[in-house]
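S.,

Sequence below, as promised.
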Amino acid sequence: MHTIQLLNEKGRAVKSFFLLTFFICFSVCLQAQTTITGLVRDESGAPLTAVSVKVKNTNTGVSTNQEGQYRIEVPNQDAILVFSYVSYTTQEVPVQGKAEVNVTLMPEENSLDEVVVVGYGTQQKRDLTGAVSVVKTSELTKRQATTMGEALQGLASGVKVRGGGGPGSEAKVEIRGLKNLSGSSPLYVIDGMITTANRDFNPNDIESVQILKDASAAAIYGSRAANGVIIITTKKGAKGPMKVEFSGTTSMQTTPRYKLAQTEEFARLNYMAYDNAGAARQDLDVSQNTDWQKAAFRTGNMQDLNLTFSGGGESGSYLVSGNYFGNEGTVISTDFDRISFRVNTQGTKGIFSIGENLAISNAKSDEMSGSPYADVVRLLPTIPIYNPNNPGGYGYGDERRARTFGSNPVALADLDDRYNENLRIRGNLWSELKPVEFLKYRFNLGYETSNDHYAHLRKEGNWSLNQDYQPSIADENRARFQSILVENTLTFNKEFGKHAVNAVVGQTYQKDLYARISGMKRNLVPDGKGGYYSELDQGNEPQAGGYRQEAIILSYLGRIEYNYDNRYLLNGVIRRDGSSRLGRSNQWGNFPSISGAWRISNEKFFQKNWVNDLKIRASYGRLGNSITSAGQVGNSSANYWDYLAVINTFSTIAMGRDQLISPGATQVALVNPNLRWETLTQKNFGVDATVLDNKITLTAEYFIADTKDVLTAMPIALTTGHDGTPPIANAASLKNTGFELSLGYNENSREFKYYINTNVTTLRNKVTSLGYGRNNIFVGNTVTQVGQPAGMWFVLQTDGLFQSQEEVDAYQNAEGRVIQPTAKPGDIRFKDNNGDGQITNDDKVVVGSPWADVELGINLGASYKNLSLTMNWFGAFGATVYNGYHSLVDRFDDNSNYRAGIQPWTPENPNTDVPRMFYGSTLSSRGDTDRWLESGSFMRLKYISLSYTLPETWLKRIGFQHGQVILSGQNLLTFTGYKGLDPEFNNANIYERGFDNFSYPNLKTYSLGLQFGF
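The prediction came back faster than expected:
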């Protein structure tokens, strides 16, 4: 080790620095120092804690304490102090001989001066060269949402979110459209731990959220970043006395309901359908008038309680938080409960820092059985809820009086009980060594483990007509997941005059292990109280099972950022990943990116006082996806061993003269050993600007993304010996293009303050290849074909109703053949698109896309004195969706309920688009027609709140520092022409994205909240 010693002209002391095998030395000129103190407040005058106060162009910095106070040493009276805080406008204040500098920070929506977290480092948003969306935490956490993903909706361009109202349900998050055919989720990074932000993660712990959308921003995560990256930083403590924060919200939820016929109307329509078909009527029990929706649905409630303790001293800080979240669902016998606990601490001693982030949670859900939103439609109002003559005592119809396919939701809730419980421990321990200001070594050890418990009890009894007898059954499975992450990174950050260089190199290792064991018993022992002893040591006919999955990913990464004179920015990234999920010949992949930006506003020739910042940028990069799941129907799980053959070890063979039975092993599933990475190549072009004293901010993006080697299922003949799901291959190619715009206006200079933020996203996906000469994939009523978006509607076209027998006879093809000879007046006329004189599958055509052309988010806020009003709107326009509800209630050929007030065709009522009632025939009721397709466009008020900040004089009387009361609502208004329950439904199947198959709807939620701190 060498030490270079330089003395300045005043003979100051020697400064020596070193790190491991590196030696770096620079001269330091020390000058007389001055102490500056002050107070930092927010726009309402309340003190701001943990505000960063730095001396510009130096590494000297402190943070404000709980009272918003700071104390800092500056080198001279010409120094400039820089005050920065997340989601507030950064201010630069010259000292100019003052001993006290007080400032008021103003919130800045979409501010380009924010410090954002990127992979393995931070940057100012103004210096980003890639596509990164920063979500304002206050907007994210004010909604009552089970998961962070659900709360993201409408807050960032290019991020599509679809959720549902079920207790514990997790939203589907999709960044920049369709990247593959498996519908994989984004990669989540929480405090440096690569993990998931599922329903056992408390959104109230979030300090900041960054969404890495393009290849240049996400390339630092390589093979797992093709679906985008969401980086979450949780809250930390700050210097000062202990601070206590509490927030509590209680909510009431209601579900939308169908308008269904009651007994009198149902019987009239049902008799009409049977009479038109010439069939004997059912002997309906018209004395019954069961409201199945009232029986299955209820008013739900939600409780969300959070308590946080935080503080710190000169050398460290701490934060401890606890959360209880409870949700009793709007469907009977459903609920979700989560208890979580978090401890974040950090400390510094000289050149060494250490810290940890630890979260423990236990989540338990009583799962919904069956499909109650479909069953309340399938069941008839003439069927009673209870029937002592049936096994189990519940009503579900009979062959003589009520033939139906519906299941009694009340019976299911009682007889089929299942729950999931998950105990998760997740966190990381990190340490840093900073021998010199410009060099930092960081070690990060992450660990996550979860214990899952699923239990299912099936009691004796039936819930649907013609159901096979099943004895009582208890089955359980217990599983454990653990993940270990080890990271070593070295960061160099230095300015050389007009040049600034930031570089990161590192190595990471992560190992995942999942193991599960399961068991089942039948014919349980009754407990004498109407239940059973459900422990697995009871009953008989035991069954057991289990499996194990393991995966390792080893990576090397590097990034360099170069900034010349704050005008020219360049960023280069390379990551090399090796994954055990792929065959040995394809385990390693390289994922590079390069991006650059030009800050025009800092050029001498650009002198526009009204433009505060103007930057254009471009990027190019490659990302990967190693999740080996092809999105096969019925098999959407991510398999760990897809490149290995499946061996059945239960086979036996009789051999020899005595025909002795010997065990054997047989390969039953053929596989593709040459699986490789799905690779996304993306180009991005963007512009960032702030104008009019930073009141208006704008970010616009255009991107082109091509995914090659997309995994798809390749069906093969069973004669090959294959007896499993179709093997998968890197066969398909996809292309995504899109435009994103974020525009905001913020007015804080007056007593009446307000902001308006809008984000607009347009996306188009296209299948460019399906591989091996294949041109299409048919699933349900959709087709995925080359040159078109995935999952396009492929159905028969309708052309009104026949009004007379003459119209039926006159509907002929060019050769004079009657096209629908069996039709009657009042039946649907279908288009003979191929002209062959008959209606067959060959007449089906592509008639619409399930993908929205435009998605729009509008976020509004205003405050005056102690009152604040906020609103979040979200809309999607241009999608064509399949209304599963209408396809059931309007088909008439089976025994389901009907829409209230429906007017089918009759000779007396010919002016309608509803065909005649006809039981037992699919002539007018078939599901593969455009009759069930509707516009899925909607605009919804996702959130509205009115809050009142309690006066300081009130708070002092009870010892509080601040307090607020909030009245809010979610999903209160929806503007749409869609006739189903909810146009904002969630269908995770890529091929049937637009199929509303009785999805759990978004719920109207009314909330009252209280926040206070001291």
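The chain has ten helices and 55 strands.

Coffee later?
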